[in-house]
């Protein structure tokens, strides 16, 4: 999962550490992103049997085609889209879909873990070919990279049972988010400003490096609620077995997109590959496997931001 990046708050460091330490007995972490980078190759999607389509593969830029690899920058964890299973393998809806995309293009995906805020700059610098980390396609992000849309997600809040929070009136409340996501950079600042404009206390926005830590902060009572992309919140509620519940309905639906270098022909290649997977039913099979069918789209576009 989203207009934009880069404002991590130093004041949240204590919260991050506390949540990660205390969470071990509550909700197992899947490996929060670190400041470094690691590389991991993944096998072809288990949800289907995508194979190379020559006409589409021939549209891949020559340098990428010659390498035989699709280098993918990813931030983990963000369940159910991208996270590590018990064996340490990177899995999820985004992963299965990117595996199928790469197979269609005749490439092998190579996943490189990085901080969320570093992925787009690394695409601009040529370190990664594409980003895969539930990025919302926004007008502001389109100033620096191109996007290929592949999913539609909204925002949804979660709370502890019995502690109701109104997402439209959370003045003075502590709300956990994953750092640099749309929820931190746009949604909550706007709601907090509405509070202060009305003479009410600001929302205390508490960012964490990984979504699991943000989820744990709510469970442990360190924050009053969390805000995340709708598939992420739904998965967290299901996985925590009654420790969390939805706070309000899904709102502000927007497209997820894969960022690529501005002007790169890779965008059209990804678009054609996804169109193929939509037509042959594999896209639906992958979405169904991860329970995210409600966010499926009919047609991918290049730079489809709505705001």
Automatic annotation (TrEMBL):
Q: Which Pfam families does the protein's record reference?
A: SBP_bac_3 (PF00497)
Q: What does UniProt give as the signal peptide span?
A: 1-33
Main subcellular location:
other
- Identify the domain of life: Bacteria
Q: Which InterPro entries match?
A: SBP_3_CS (IPR018313), Solute-binding_3/MltF_N (IPR001638)
Question: Which SMART domains does UniProt cross-reference here?
Answer: PBPb
Quick check: keyword NADP in the entry? no
Task: Output the SUPFAM superfamilies linked to this UniProt entry.
Answer: Periplasmic binding protein-like II
Q: Where is the Solute-binding protein family 3/N-terminal domain?
A: 69-294
The UniProt keyword set, sorted, is:
Signal
Q: Where does it reside? A: Cell envelope
Q: What's one GO-annotated cellular component?
A: cell envelope
Which protein family is named in the record? Belongs to the bacterial solute-binding protein 3 family.
Spell out the protein name for this chain: ABC transporter substrate-binding protein
| Organism listed in the record | Mycolicibacterium confluentis
